[in-house]
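User: Can you predict the 3D structure of Leptin receptor overlapping transcript-like 1? Sequence below.
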Amino acid sequence: MAGIKALISLSFGGAIGLMFLMLGCALPVYDKYWPLFLLFFYILSPIPYCISRRVVDDTDSASNACKELAIFLTTGIVISAFGLPIIFARAEVIAWGACALVLTGNVVIFGTILGFFLVFGSNDDFSWQQ
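Assistant: Sure. Here are the predicted structure tokens for Leptin receptor overlapping transcript-like 1:
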């Protein structure tokens, strides 16, 4: 039952993060949809780590290069997702208020992605194939 509660809370967090992103785009004060390019970063961020988990054998307790590369690429994607709205605001493509809403959405969504990997990352008690 704890898996279902975690899944519901993670989906709620994702919905709140997307709400902040949409508010930063669609409020009549801002009315620019350039921050929606961050959806690509949200999709791309877990991919390197998921690929490395499939390739790497976890029996070795030492750190390996594949997992370190995946974490490095994921960090680059996350930092780029935080940098893009700031660059848009500096170039006056979007307003600073929209930038603040988008950055708030980034924090919530990337926290939700991190929470997903912390809760469902170890295949102990919950499986999608029940």
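The chain has one domain: 1-120. Residues 1-120 form one domain.
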